[in-house]
Amino acid sequence: MRILLVEDEPVLAEQLKSALERAEYVVQHVAEGPEALYQGAEQVYDAAILDLGLPGLDGLSVLRQWRAAGVALPVLVLTARSEWHEKVAGIDAGADDYLAKPFHMEELMARLRALLRRAAGQVSAQLKLGQLTLDTSSNQVTYAGTALSLTSHEYRLLAFLMHHPGKVFSRADLTEHLYAQDFERDSNTIEVFIGRLRKKFPASYIETVRGLGYKLVDPQA
């Protein structure tokens, strides 16, 4: 899952980036409003964490312009402002959730997980498909009750597919969601990760849709 992190305080930005990467998110960090506006409108992200007090263009303006342009990515607004009318302004501008500084990192991570689940139509922290289960709060994957050992890239790929069961994604689509913007991408590596996942639980869970890509299904359904 790719996250756009928009925060101009260097120390906090590094703390957030490190915490997100430890949780197996791919993070693109920007510190100024105009760059945030461009990234959100032109690049592919699964969610954004957006500070309101930004140089160049404030976060509310960024958010309003995203929404006016039809950018629908989930947005968690992060700000030092705590007055109720500031929260209302952020939500009315199109924010999906709001967190005032200072905050506990665990709360931010929980809110982000919930944001991603809601955007994908999921309601539980445990994503289940047949006997396959992914716990988004612990990054633990099990099949028929047995824990699976996955690499970072395998987990990221499976987590994205588990958030969107039954939907077909091309190799290019999956690559966009799994790698940082500056990573040298090769969509053929998706086939490698798909092959590895198929060896760790029944291969029938991941269907190849000829000419289109892959989708995650419950083979028992």
UniProtKB/TrEMBL annotation:
Keywords: DNA-binding, Phosphoprotein. Residues 124-218 form the OmpR/PhoB-type domain. The keyword Cell inner membrane does not apply. InterPro entries: CheY-like_superfamily (IPR011006), OmpR/PhoB-type_DNA-bd (IPR001867), Sig_transdc_resp-reg_receiver (IPR001789), WalR-like (IPR039420), WH-like_DNA-bd_sf (IPR036388). It comes from Alcaligenes endophyticus. The keyword ATP-binding does not apply. The modification 4-aspartylphosphate is found at D51. SMART domains: REC, Trans_reg_C. Residues 2-116 form the Response regulatory domain. This is Response regulator transcription factor. PANTHER family: REGULATOR OF RPOS, RESPONSE REGULATOR PROTEIN CARR. Residues 124-218 bind DNA.
